[in-house]
Write a structure and sequence with these properties.
Elements lengths: L1 H4 L11 H18 L4 H4 L3 H8 L4 H20 L13 E5 L2 E5 L14 E6 L1
Antiparallel strand pairs: 1-2, 2-3
Helix pairs in contact: 2-5
């Protein structure tokens, strides 16, 4: 595939659910920090917001704010399996409109023992 596409592939691990959650929450915080605030438009809404949050500490507001999105991410990724661990010896690769079910990784590299593809489906 690398020769056909004239590109070198780099093997990388797929992030775990926890790593994805961490990156999502950091991205959200970055977005909050750099959001453009339209002072004129939001000013009329702020007194009610301040009133609703007056009994919460700064730390509690930050925790609750972060939890709004974090809880959603956590729920989605909680039971996600580790994609870096193969449950089977067989792997599926999708490239150029062809899905090939390959019985062994070694069949991808001619330097290793080549095994034949067990099935091939073209879309």
């Amino acid at each position: 595939v690398e020769k056909m596409l004239k590109r070198k592939f780099t093997k990388m691990l797929v992030p775990t659910g926890d790593e994805v959650c961490q990156q999502k929450i950091v991205g959200l915080v970055h977005k909050v920090r750099h959001v453009e605030v339209n002072e004129e438009e939001i000013d009329s809404f702020l007194p009610e917001v301040y009133h609703e949050l007056k009994d919460l500490s700064k730390e509690d507001i930050i925790k609750r704010f972060a939890s709004i999105e974090f809880n959603r991410f956590l729920e989605y990724y909680r039971d996600a399996r580790d994609l870096n661990k193969s449950e089977k010896k067989s792997h599926t690769f999708l490239f150029l409109g062809v899905v090939e079910r390959i019985s062994s990784i070694s069949s991808l590299n001619p330097m290793f023992n080549i095994s034949s593809a067990s099935s091939r489906t073209t879309y």
